Predict the 3D structure of the following.
Amino acid sequence: EIPRPTLERLPLYYRSLSLWREQGIITVSSVDIGRDVGVNVVQVRKDLAYFGEFGRPGVGYNVEYLMDELGKLMGFTTETKAVLIGAGRLGTAVVSYGGFKRYSVKIAAMFDTDKEKIGTEVSDVPILDMAYLPQFLGENEIELGIITVPSLAAQEVADILTANDIKAIWNFAPVSLQVPEEIKVRNEDLAVGLATLCYFLNKEKKD
Amino acid sequence: EIPRPTLERLPLYYRSLSLWREQGIITVSSVDIGRDVGVNVVQVRKDLAYFGEFGRPGVGYNVEYLMDELGKLMGFTTETKAVLIGAGRLGTAVVSYGGFKRYSVKIAAMFDTDKEKIGTEVSDVPILDMAYLPQFLGENEIELGIITVPSLAAQEVADILTANDIKAIWNFAPVSLQVPEEIKVRNEDLAVGLATLCYFLNKEKKD
Ligand SMILES: NC(=O)c1ccc[n+]([C@@H]2O[C@H](COP(=O)([O-])OP(=O)(O)OC[C@H]3O[C@@H](n4cnc5c(N)ncnc54)[C@H](O)[C@@H]3O)[C@@H](O)[C@H]2O)c1
Ligand SMILES: NC(=O)c1ccc[n+]([C@@H]2O[C@H](COP(=O)([O-])OP(=O)(O)OC[C@H]3O[C@@H](n4cnc5c(N)ncnc54)[C@H](O)[C@@H]3O)[C@@H](O)[C@H]2O)c1
């Protein structure tokens, strides 16, 4: 079983590797990885050792090989089909962010209740009428629902998703969702990243 | 010294406590906290034990008291002044998200190069001309810069911030910024949260 903190770091290593591959870099060291991601080099080696012997002492890691291994392990090489509900500021920023393609997540469609948005597109993703969501989920094998609606609408949206066989929910609305046990929910809160930064800022002031 | 994983969880506890305080709840147990945040109850007790004896066995934690203690410790009770550069989809979503007030972060102004946006406001925060940024930083004691511009512009923005005594940068652009050692940088990548969710989705398929 892989510890949770290690799991949270692997996508960061994968991102660094994919940027290096684009630049044509063949091998990197654990020091390179640690510096790029901001993680202690001993921790990098410990994390990667969970999956077998990738690096050779003094030679480093082969970028292509390590990326393939991590990709297979984390499921980044198989496509995950998603829908996004709430095509507002945050929703459209999420859809137009290219960073998700690296993990093979495909946002098939967005859904909204705003008549002015329905029928338009953002980054080639259509915005469809919320009334059509149950049928769309039934016709396509959608595994993931991304919720970027206002808090008051979030639970009602989650209910529609869970009633139509969604497997996982990525929730940005600042509410705790009530969903069946077997549905995986990840609550994203940007404020947490900011709060951690505040801690280091204030620690410095006190020291 | 508080371990990093503990530090990342404290803002989540703080958020739960602030939502309970708003609902008028006086005491909560470590089980309540663990369930709301999605963390194992033993871990909750271990995390809180770093800061002293808050809870009484069988009685639980006083919401108000625990919140004050955590707030002082993490620096959430002192105001952090920030500016945001790049008033696009993501930038305006960040500014209008109420979650930051809980941590006493005040976004004093946004900056952009787009003439159509300069002179307008989002959630009472003015959008100012990028040319004015150095002067604005000199006249106000701004500690934090939030970068939500396209990747190509990110380094140039970071250079202006560091040249004008910024202390910390919260970076959303998917590039590694070169900044002086003493500046704290947090790179935020929403794709990492998504990637972790994909891991659990795919693990389920394999099992
Ligand atoms: N967790 C975070 O870090 C974070 C950061 C920013 C915003 N947010 C949250 O994300 C959400 C969206 O924020 P935003 O700034 O994009 O808001 P927004 O108002 O720009 O967008 C909300 C969209 O949801 C649509 N909508 C409303 N009710 C709906 C329903 N029942 N079904 C389908 N669509 C519906 C609206 O028409 C609109 O397009 C809010 O809940 C906000 O609190 C969270
Ligand atoms: N890290 C993540 O998880 C994540 C998620 C979504 C978007 N992003 C990134 O955030 C950034 C913004 O995305 P978006 O969807 O909001 O884009 P956007 O095009 O909607 O907004 C960018 C804004 O920056 C302004 N701008 C451009 N150059 C500037 C400069 N030199 N100085 C000041 N302002 C400038 C533009 O006028 C525009 O208002 C991009 O780099 C994107 O890759 C990151």
Remarks:
- Helices of chain A lie at 4-22, 30-37, 41-49, 63-74, 89-95, 133-139, 151-163, 190-206.
- The first strand of chain A starts at residue 27 and ends at 28.
- Residues A 85-91, 111-114, 117, 130, 148-151, 153, 157, 172-174, 188-191; B 93, 96-97, 99 surround nicotinamide-adenine-dinucleotide (ligand 1) (CB under 6 Å).
